[in-house]
Structures are given as structure tokens and as C-alpha cells.
Amino acid sequence: MSLIEVEDLTVRYGRRTALEGVSFAVPEGSVYALLGRNGAGKSSLVRCLLGEQLPVSGRTLLLGHDVWRERASILAEVGVVHESPDAPPAMTASQLSRFCSRLYPRWDGAGLSARLRRFGVPENVPFGKLSRGQRGQVALGLALAPAPRLLILDDPTLGLDPVARRSVFEELIGDLADRGTTVFLTSHDLGGVEGIADRVGILQEGRLVIDEEVETLKRRFRRVRLPPGSEESPQLADLTPVALTSRAWGVEAVVSGWDDERSALPAGAAEVSALTLEEIFLALVGGPQ
Amino acid sequence: MKGMLTVLARELAEWRLLFLVALVLGLFPLALPWLPNAGGLDPAELRDATALGLAAVAGCVLAFVLGASVLARDLSERRLGFYFVRPLSGAAIWGGKMLGAAILCLGSSALVLLPAVLAGGDVAPTSRWGLDPEVLPFLLVPGLLLLLVGSHAGSVMVRSRSPWLAFDVASLALVTAAFWACQRLLQREGAIGSLQRMQISLVWTFLVVTAVAGLVQVVRGRTDLHRGHRLLSLTLWSLLGATALGSFSYARWVLGVTPRDLTGFREILPAPSGSWIALGGEAAGRGGYAPVFLFDLASGRSIKILGDIEIYRMRNPAFSRDGSRAVWMSWSAGEGYVLSALDLRRPGAVPVQTRISYPQRPVFFVIAPDGSRVAALWRDRVTVDDLRTGRMLVSQLLPDDFEYDDRLLFIDAGHLRIFRSEAIERLGQPPVWRLSTLDLEIATRRIVPVTSIEMTGHEGGFDLSPAGTHALLYRYPSQKPLLADLLTGRTMALPFSKDPLLTRFLPDGRLILTEAEGGRVLFRLLSSEGAEQIRIALPGVRLLIGGQPAPDFLAVAAWTGSSKDSKAWTSWLVDLETGHLRMIGRGLLPTAVGPREPGSLPARMFHRGRGDLLLFDPATGKLQTVLPGLDRARDLSAPWMLEMVIPGP
Q1: Global ipTM
Q2: Which of B125, B309, B547, B548 is least enclosed, having the fewest CB within 10 Å?
Q3: Cβ partners under 8 Å of residue B576, min gap 6
Q4: Residues of A engaging B, defined by a Cβ cutoff of 8 Å
Q5: Which CATH number does A2-212 carry?
């Protein structure tokens, strides 16, 4: 069963198109990472997923229900961490916990306290006075406390230092292992995502250009180094190059059609190597064409 | 509901300090009487007034500040998402936050008042500020809540900084202009009760509409400030536009009243001749709106001429003696009392505003017998204007100040007779009451004294004969009037034998005397020289003298019982030649109580209570309903009032 189903979603702000015909699904128990440059449409997509944004066309189902129509009831089983952790600034973590506990059918207040203690977040300091990292920890704790079936994280590591970033992902992984929670996240921390994501989607200018399992993606993307003048070779064309870079020693190509069993090296190729998720992302949306 | 209560509790907890501040603020008025500069003022008065003022200010300031911040600020600072990612409906978020703000606002105001109340103070705004207790509860709390939701709407508009703000400003201007125009329409027509009712309804409607617009903004716009603003504006201005249309429809409905919509006829003034009458009364379901109409008994045509029946009491409208023209004054801001006229003989004629206007109400106002001129009596002068051209023909200073009881009468279109009644106190001498008669020749503008009649006694009153040559003089408290010849100055005692009740002139100058005789009323007809012509007795203890449905026949109504009993009045037709009596009907009253042209339609008119208007046919003795009233069951005590307020022609 898919906990998230997005069908042909289009969002426009006036004349500007933020999302165009986006469709994907997130199976239960998986971790789906949505990647994209700033302005690619990630936040609009998350807002649609949370029922905060009405699309021009298409629909978004969360836990099998239309989220625009049934937002409040669906969100009882969904934990959310916003891009910039928000809560009334005068409320302390314990007050926030008490407030939220009245809204959810299940609430693990003790677990939340333990988590905050573990990360050294004071429970009696107003939310507005916490550091960026501490606010992120509170937001994550509040998202996990109702034991949600689905966790939606909008760039949860934005602005965090590397240590805090690592702890967020480790925390996530720990929870995922414990509970089998489905996670949908957007992030610019591709290194962190690569370690936890089962499936990845890449948004480019409002269109979903990649939507597949991370392992499959990494298997079909390769960096190929070729001698000078190989740009037009038919074998390279068969491998579907997505990025070509001219170097002093020759040409470096990123191909998306690699098959370990069937693909053959172009004549004169010097080297074929695997790519990280970040390298694939850069090749697709950031690198020179 | 649980979600809304959770949000509400959270709002109250966040702002709970406000209650404490309000309580402390409420202690301030208690200390005021001891402050050095409070000397001279009643301490309790000072305390209560200050407490009330502070409570009002606190309520308004909090309504404004909380309305602008509890939701709109969260939205613009992107903190509303905290609530929207929880299992909370938009309605619960909006309801919890706005209800919390309302409780904070009203609760704080109440807490400011609490110490003064506990100290035994009177802080009811109705008694302190002289506000209408029937209106205030409908305006004070909704007004404060309107400020709260309005502040939210305004804050969203300003914070979104979208081009829709221009649309808001334009819509606000349009809607304000529409409501202002609507209000002016009712105000100008004197429909003050309807206006007040509309204003109260509008405050509630504005409150509901603005609240609904805010709700739609949160429920449909959610965390998108621009989309929310757009939804708020579309909802708010479309609903307010519909409300403005509704208000216009209401105003049109109120002002489109016809005589058939009147619950009863409070005032009826038949023309001296012709077929027109003026009638006024309260319109059904229109908040006490009491317009005055000209109504043609012959054709059934009616024209609304005044929206305020009170103006009608000032001899307004005035009919010319030949029944050809009606003239009336209506108030117009900037112009004063403007005269309008209607040609009663021309079918389909519409009221025409003349060029004549008065800066204030005259002491007395009269139209010439042929309808060509109007004359007005002021405290120090008399003016005559030509109705057709609007030209002032005469503005002549008078020797003394004139007052309400003084009168004018056109002898003909070229001559005006002025009557002045005054009480004269001379040191060491008994008081004297004097009636002076002066004639004004309009062509020469010359005022000539005619007679001056003095009588010992306190101030009295007088009734004029239709020609203005004779008068009945009353010296209060004496019930027995004297007959005075105003051209010679001679007075004559009338031959009363019993207790006098009512004395009236007939159109031909003859006199009717009525006297109480045991359980009957003695009816005596005297010639203009005072010779008795007929004497008859009617069952009853009081008599009302009506018009002459036919020459030599007079309608009278005798009262035999309680004024609450509509059947206690019985109308009779008296044959003035033979004294023969014919019953017209029970529970009926003749409408024309002053001299009218014998046989004219107004002289044949009767009414049942304050309801049905009926036309009597003296030939067949049948009554025909001309205008059915909605309030025919009302008591018949009206004729005395009619008699007092309706002057002779």
C-alpha cells in the first residue's frame, strides 16, 4: 500500500508554474527523498502533501485519503517537520508537548522528554529562545511523539551544523528501524539522504525528472572517462549521457543508461566509475550540459 | 470541538496576563477620588465614569490589537503551519483563536469594571452615557466583536501586501458609499425607526459577514497568505455587496409604503372640499415609520408626501379651501423647510417642489382659498409668497412677538386676517386676556388693526368661524365660551342652559352647542346671530361633531361608554332642518371634525377605530369601505386627538 500517492499534480502561482504534472507514490515502510534545487517546487509539493496548498489540477492522497478534503483527520497519523521549525515562540517544549498530546490519539510524552534530554534540549525554555538546532530537535520530537505512520520532513537539516545534521539522520534511522515508519523528506543534504532513502525523486523546474529506487538509480548512472574526440561515439550515445565535461586529458561523461551486465565500454574508454547520489543529482540538475 | 477548545485554552494561557493587567487597571478608578485634583467632583461619579471609560478603551484596544495579531501575525510570520500540521481543522484553528481573543477582550473589559462594581458603583453604560437600553445590548458587544474580526481582516489585507489591497480599498469605498446612501435615504424620509433597526441589523450582519470571510480565509486559504487574502476579500466584499443590495431593498420596501400598509390611521385630515384627504399612520413592520399620504377618495390614488408624522402636526399639509391644491413643508438639510405643492384637480399630477423655503418652522402657515398663495406667521413678521413663481409678496413686521396660538386666515386671495391672542399682566390689576384682529392688504402691504377684544381672566383660547368674522372665546378654566364679532369687537354670551360640552361653527356660520343633560347630550343649533333653530337630545355623555355628508345634514357621534369599547361610539345623521335623527352605525366616527364643504367626499367619510376608512352615502345610507385598515380593533380614543390637532380650513 502506498501512503503517499501524488497524481498529475500541477501548482501555479499566478502565471508562474511551480509544479507541472507531478506523479509518484511512496510505499508503506519506505523512505522517499525528494531532491531539487531551490525553487524547483519542493516546498509547493510538501504544502500539497500537507493539505495547505490546493493544486490547480491533480490530487494528493495521504494514507489513501484526499488530503485537501480530509487534512485534519489524516494528520492524526502523520508527523511533520517544517523547513523552518515553527511553534508559538512563547511555548516551552513541555507546553508544546501538552498542547499536542490533546490532539493526537497516541502521544508518547515520556519518549519526547527522553529524546530532548538525550540531545540536551531544555524543556522549560520558550521555543523562541532555543537555538536553530534545538528547535529542530523539538520539532522532530513533536513529529515522532504521536507514533505516526508517515513522517513528512521538509529539509529538516537546513541550517544545522554537521554534527546536528548527522544526529537528525541517525535519529531518523533509529526510529525507522524501530517502528517501520514511512518517511517522505526533502533535503539538500544528499550525503545524509543517501544513507537512509529507499527511493528518490528529483524535481527540476517543477517537473519530476527522476522517481526510482536509490539503488537502481545508482546502478544505471556511471561516470565514463573517454579520450579526446569521443563525444560523438555511438556507444556513448547508447549509454544515454546526461552530462559531458571536456578535460585536458579527454572527456568525462555521466551516463544514465549503464547496465552492469550488458553495457560495453566505448572504444578507448579509460575508466568507468560509480557515482554518489550527490554526483548524480549534480549531473542531472546542476552541472554543465 | 475538542480541537477548537484546545486552541482556545492555549490562546487564553498565552495572554492570561492581560486579565491581571485589567484587574490592576480596574483598581485605578477606586484611587481617583483621593487624588488631589479630583476635588469638586462627586467621588462615586468620578470612579464609575473612569471605570467605564477605561473598560471601553481597554475593550477597543484589545479588540484591535488581538484581532490584528492572533491569526494574521502568525500567518504572515509563517507560524500558522504549526497548527496546520496538527489534526486540527481550519475552523477549529480560526474558532479557537478568535474565540480566545473575544474572551480576552470582553473578559478584560469586565475585569476593569469589577472593582468599581464591587465598590457599589453604577457602571451601566445606559445610565451613564444616556444610551438607549433597548439598542445598546445589540450594539456594544457585537460592535466590539466586529472591531475584533474587522481588525483581523484588515491585518490580513495589509500584511499580505498583494495587489488585492487596491481591490479592498476600492470595495470599501463603494460599500461605504452604498451604506451611507442607504442610511441617508431613510434618514431624509424620516424613517428613523427603520434606520435604527437597519443599523442594528447591519452591525450584526457586518459581524457575521466579516467573521465568515475570516473563516473562509483560514479554512480555504490555510497557510497561504496571498490566497487567504484573495478568498477573504472575495467573500467579504461579495457578502457586503449583497448586504448593501439587501439594505437598499429594505429601504425601498420601507419607503415604498402605501396607505394600505398602515396598521392604522393615526392622523386624518380631509380637505375642505374636493375629494382628497391627508392621512398618516404607522406602517406595518417598518420600525415605527409613520408616513403621511395624500389620498384621493374618488380615484384611490395616493402620494406619499412626508415620512415623519410629527411634521404633519404643524398644520401640514394645508389644503386650499376650494380643494384645488395641497401644500406641505418638508425638511431639507441646507435649505430648511421646503414647500412642495400638488395640483389636486389635475389627474396624474405629481408633487412639485416650489421655490419657497423657510429657514425654520413658522408659528402658523396657511394657503389662500384659491391655492395661489401661502402665508406664514413668524414671531415678528408675516410673509406672503406666490406659490407659482415663488416670489415673496409681503414680508411685514408685526408690532409684537407672535406665538403658537396666533393664527392667520385668508379672507380672499388678496386679504389676510391675523389673529393674536395674548395674556396681559398689569401690576396691581387682574390679568387680562386679549384677542387682536388685524387685516393685511397684500397688494399694499398695509396692516390695519380691526378690533381688539379684552376679557378679564387668564389666558384663553379661540375658535374661528370659517369666514373669520366671528370667534368663540374661551377663558380658562371656564367651559362657557363667548361669541365674539371680530369686526365690531362685540361679545355675546351664548345661551347655555346646562353644562357645556362642545361648541362648533358650521361652514355657513351657524353654531352648534352641546351640553350634558343627565345621561344625554343636548344638541342645539343656533343661527349666526345666536337664535336657537333646533334642539334635540342624543343618548350619550359626549358628542363629536363631524362634517355635513349632505347640505342640511350633519354627522355626529355620541359616546355612551368606555373609550376602550369601540362600540361605545354611535354615529348619527342629524337633519338640520327638522332635527330628525338617523343612525349611521355603531363603532363609527365621522372623520371630518371641522367644517368641510357640505356634501364633499371628505365630509362623508367615517372611520372604524384607527382602521377602515368608509364613505357614507346619505342618499342610500350605505357605507362603502374606501381603505381597509390593518388595525381596526384599536380603540376609538383617537377623535379627541384628531380634534385637537386638526385645524379648521
Answers
A1: 0.88
A2: B125
A3: B506, B525, B533, B534, B548, B552, B553, B554
A4: 13, 47, 50-54, 71-76, 78, 80, 82, 84, 86-91, 95, 99-100, 102-104
A5: 3.40.50.300
